[in-house]
Each structure stands twice: as structure tokens, then as C-alpha cells.
Amino acid sequence: MSTQGKRKPLTHGTLSGYQHYKCRCNKCRAVKxxxxxxxxxxxxxxxxxxxxxxxxxxxxxxxxxxxxxxCEICSAFMRGYRLGSKCESALQVKPEGELxxxxxxxxxxYERQRICGTAEAYSFGCTCELCLTExxxxxxxxxxx
Length: 145
Description:
Elements: H1 15-19, H2 26-45, H3 61-65, H4 72-91, H5 108-112, H6 119-124, H7 129-144
């Protein structure tokens, strides 16, 4: 005989009887009332959690930029920060001995390593007539294949 779909017999005076079996006899109601009373007492014993925004740390770039605080402290900090960064960038000038040239002059040996009229010389950027004609045709053959 299958027990599928059959419920266990109802036991009166239990929380399960009140909630799951929907029994409203005096015993089941008393148990439910005691259960709710116990929950309310436990809830009252807990301290409430204070949830709210954290206080803003004034005088920081974060409070000025992210939070948009424009109090005197935050405004003064940002004013000083901006002036300081302008002064620092103006003072960071390299001495003349440390300047790196923008255009580096390549040695003649470096330029003469490539033979004119080849695909390599053309791809390197040689602009002589031989490279622009023969070197270009060789280069295009290499690229197509």
C-alpha cells in the first residue's frame, strides 16, 4: 500500500498543527500565541542596527569631487591642491644636460645597411628612384603572396 499523498495524523497542541494543518482548536491557538509572544520578546532584546550614511571626511579631494561638498574646509583644500599641482609641474623642468632629443639622428652605417632596389629598403622608407620602382614591385609581390 502506498503512503504517497497521505498526511501524517494531526497532533493537537503543536505549531505544525496550527500552521500546516490549519487547526484552530484551543490547544493549537495557545501554542501559536506562545510562539509569537516569544518571537516578540526576542525581537525586543536585539539592539537596532543603525544604518545610515557614513560621515564625510572633510578636507579631502574625495569629499570635494565625489560627494560635492563645498564647505570652507573642502574648498580650501582643493584650492591649495590645484595651486600646488600647478607649482609642482612648473618646477619640474629638466636641466639642459638631461634633455633627450626629439629627432634622433641615425648613423650613416645604419642607413647604408639596406641595399637600394629591394623590398626591404622600400619597406624601410627609402625614397630613391630605384626603391620606388623595383623595390616597390618586390614588396607588393611579397605582401600579396
